[in-house]
Amino acid sequence: MSEEKITKNTLVHLRYRITTLLRDGTSKEGKEEQFSFIFGVERQVPSLERALEGARVGDRLKVSIAPGEIYGEYDQCLIAEIPKKGLLKQRLKEGQYYRQVRQGCLVSFKVLEVRPDTVLADFNKPLAGIAVLMDVEILGARPATPDEIISAAEADYKRSIGCG
Question: For the chain, which terminal residue's Cβ has fewer other Cβ atoms within 10 angstroms, N or C?
C-alpha cells in the first residue's frame, strides 16, 4: 500500500460498483467500472470526496450517497392533478412519461393516473429520491502535474456550465 494520502491535486484512479437503492425498497447493482480524476479539482459528490480524503492506494471504501447529492430528493408537492385539455391523449399512458413542447417549453411528467377530465401527474425528475451505495477500491494515486491540473480545471468548468 502507498504511504501517500489522497489530498488536493492528487490524480486518483478508482474501481467502483454502484448499487442503486430504488424508492420502492428494491436495489439494482451496476457493473464494475473504473475512472480517474484529480481530487479537489474535478468535483465529485461530497460523500465520495469526504470518503477519499486521506485514503491510500489499496483502500476499499463503502460510500453511501443520499438522493439530494446525486439525483435530488423526491418531493410529494410535485404531484398535481392537471386538466387534460391541451394534452395529446395518445401520449397519456399510466406509468409512462409524457413529453410535449408547448409555447416553446418542454412539458414533462410521469402519468400516475388518467381520469375523465384530468391527469394525476408527477413532476419529479425520473431519478429523484434514489440513493446510491458505492463500493470503491483505490487503484492508484499520485501527485498530478501542473498541466494535468490545468486541463482538469478547464474540463470541470466546462461541465459546470453544460459544455462537457
Answer: N
Pick the CATH number of 10-72+128-160 from 3.30.70.980, 3.10.180.10, 3.40.190.10, 3.10.50.40: 3.10.50.40
Phi-psi region of 51 (alpha: psi -120 to 50; beta: other; left: phi over 0): alpha
The tens place of each residue's pLDDT in the chain, 164 residues long, gives 456 799 999 999 999 999 999 988 999 999 999 999 999 999 999 999 999 999 999 999 999 999 999 999 999 999 999 999 989 999 999 999 999 998 888 999 999 999 999 999 999 999 999 999 999 999 999 999 999 999 999 888 888 777 65
56 with 138: CB under 8 angstroms? yes
Taking the complete model, does pTM exceed 0.85, yes or no? no
Place of cell 474535478: 42
